[in-house]
Design goal:
By secondary structure, this protein is of the alpha+beta class. The protein contains 7 helices and 18 strands. Helices cover 18% and strands 35% of the residues.
Length: 284
């Protein structure tokens, strides 16, 4: 079961996905929910969302096939990215494992959704796509203990985080610049409520994330091999600043892949979802 957004008649509409029943508008649930997906995350706990969807008669659902899914929402309060957070990925780059999360901020102008093009910026000759598990905050969170941090989540979502790698290699202080071109943060198609995730996997550690280009798996690893796990990332950042409903922590990639115009980049997370974006030239 997932919270998602579809495009219909030029309008973005929040829906619930419940395979194999299909999708249903949130306003058509047995107990309706108004607003967009971000409003839902702020107002309806994930367990209550799941209960409302399960209580809705199957006759109200429609097929999901052929629907155009967008980013679940376009204006998160903030997006945190995490660098070098898988041990094997750090080893590939001959990088010292960080003692603390190596995090950075991305702005909401970078947000795109499934199927939207990733434009390659004119300033860069080497862009990478990085599949990641996105952690979606579900309630106002400040100074949460690591033991309680997973309780702050609404759910998880596939992410593709892009980097202008050649710009970053010129100077590590160019991290913000290299990460903030338009189209450099894709997420979707659906957010899986945390209760569903834990029921399916037992813990977030069992989730596998794969970076895929043109159907070829370039790198895959499980959350268990992160240097800093999801609970630590939430607690660490909540000690720095307040986290708001809908904030996303993109928890790091098992490996980056260089992308070129004409490629198709993919974040593949079995049991959670597949996010796919075409790559186009944005150079003038």
């Amino acid at each position: 079961m997932q919270l998602a957004t579809i495009l219909e008649g030029g309008e973005e509409i929040a829906v619930a996905l419940d395979p194999p029943r299909g999708l249903v508008r949130l306003t058509d649930l047995a107990e309706p929910i108004g607003g967009g997906a971000l409003d839902v995350i702020a107002a309806v706990p994930p367990g209550e969302f799941t209960d409302r969807v399960r209580a809705t008669p199957t006759a109200r659902f429609a097929p999901a096939e052929g629907r155009e899914f967008t980013a679940p929402y376009r204006r998160p309060h903030k997006i945190w990215g995490i660098g070098l957070n898988y041990r094997a990925h750090a080893d590939d780059l001959s990088a010292v494992h960080p003692d603390e999360p190596a995090s950075f901020i991305k702005a909401d102008h970078t947000v795109i959704g499934p199927g939207e093009p990733i434009p390659l910026p004119a300033q860069s000759e080497r862009v990478t796509a990085e599949a990641e598990l996105g952690l979606v905050i579900g309630r106002p969170t400040r100074d949460v203990a690591e033991a309680d941090a997973i309780g702050a989540l609404w759910g998880v979502v596939p992410v593709l985080d892009q980097t202008a790698e050649d710009i970053l290699q010129r100077n590590p202080r160019f991290l913000t610049r290299s990460k903030n071109f338009p189209g450099f943060f894709s997420f979707g198609p659906g957010i899986t409520p945390i209760g569903e995730v834990l029921e399916r996997f037992g813990s977030l550690a069992a989730i596998e994330v794969a970076t895929v280009v043109d159907g070829e798996v370039r790198r895959a690893d499980t959350v268990a091999h992160m240097i800093f796990g999801p609970a630590h990332l939430i607690a660490f950042h909540s000690a720095m600043m307040p986290l708001h409903p809908g904030d996303i922590i993109s928890s790091g990639t098992p490996g980056a892949a260089v992308i070129a115009a004409g490629d198709t980049a993919e974040c593949r997370i079995p049991g959670i979802g597949v996010l796919t974006n075409p790559v186009v030239s944005g150079r003038s």
